[in-house]
Design brief:
Helices cover 77% and strands 0% of the residues. The radius of gyration is 23 Å and the shape is globular.
Length: 306
């Protein structure tokens, strides 16, 4: 039977979640923190105690939205926070375990929601309607500024949109567990006496080697078969997009490791970041460095870093 303190904390959790979800002017910032109330509750009281605010939030989501997709999205955020809280309570886990656990839940949940949206709401057709409407609006705006040439046919963008949209959604989800871990950790250290669990220094980040092999298999498959008319290859195409970004981050990590090994200050990473995002050739070099770092033992050959 739940204790009074668990019920009280449950109402506080639901209330904090609603505040973060309903602050419309600041939603672009608070949406990243929506798993936080369940993260804090579960880390303090355990997953059984978190079931009460979980189901109460599901009921309120149905009342407010009336849509299964809306309820599913709310529950995904709640489960993400609960999984991170469960992992943080364990004595043998690290900050990396907590962040990866949250990220795994987010990615799997988003994949299920996207599949459900495509099957139940004909998401592809709705995106075509939105794209067509925005295309016509942009053409009208250009005419007002004296540009008479028509824009390209929006139908030509369908393939590109379907190829990159899921990848972009997955990439946007990456900061969610990282931000919630950083914010929630402060509260748990100060208020609950939990030990601090941190991610390793950026220069020591390493992608597992299977990512290296999967990247090249996916890239080769996309190059051979293309993206048109094959949903399985489209999935691989999105995987290639996500992995490209991950290997770019890996390349930046390797660059930071080299700078640290050469006794260069962290300030050198600022021009590296600027050049990476502004100069395409630098972007490709950093990307290739990330592939090399993940797929080989190049750090061992350079010797142990500091």
């Amino acid at each position: 039977m739940p204790q009074i303190s668990d019920i009280r904390d449950g109402f506080i959790t639901v209330g904090l979640f609603l505040i973060l979800a309903l602050i419309t002017p600041l939603l672009i910032f608070t949406m990243w923190l929506l798993p936080l109330p369940f993260f804090l509750h579960t880390s303090k009281n355990g997953w059984r105690s978190a079931l009460f605010p979980f189901f109460l939030t599901a009921i309120l989501a149905w009342i407010f939205t009336g849509e299964p997709f809306g309820v599913g999205l709310v529950l995904l955020l709640a489960v993400t926070g609960m999984v991170m809280g469960i992992l943080y309570r364990k004595t043998d886990t690290t900050g990396t375990d907590v962040a990866l656990g949250g990220l795994t839940v987010v990615w799997v949940g988003l994949l299920l929601l996207l599949v459900g949206a495509v099957m139940a709401y004909d998401l592809g057709e709705q995106l075509d309607v939105i794209l067509q409407r925005e295309w016509e609006r942009n053409e009208e705006l250009l005419r007002l500024y004296g540009v008479s040439e028509p824009l390209p046919d929006p139908d030509s963008m369908d393939e590109v949109l379907s190829s990159v949209l899921p990848a972009m959604i997955f990439l946007m989800a990456v900061p969610v567990p990282l931000i919630n871990l950083a914010v929630g950790r402060r509260w748990m250290i100060r208020q609950q006496g939990f030990p601090g669990k941190y991610l390793p220094p950026f220069r020591n980040w390493r992608l597992p080697r299977p990512f290296f092999y999967f990247y090249f298999v996916s890239l080769l498959t996309v190059l051979i078969f293309g993206l048109e008319g094959n949903s399985a290859v489209v999935v691989l195409g999105n995987a290639v997009t996500v992995l490209f970004i991950l290997f770019l981050i890996q390349g930046l990590s390797f660059t930071a490791w080299l700078l640290n090994r050469g006794d260069q200050g962290k300030g050198w990473m600022v021009p590296v970041l600027v050049l990476t995002f502004l100069v395409p050739i630098v972007t490709m070099v950093i990307h290739l460095m990330g592939i090399l770092d993940s797929g080989t033992r190049i750090r061992d050959r350079f010797g142990a870093g500091k």
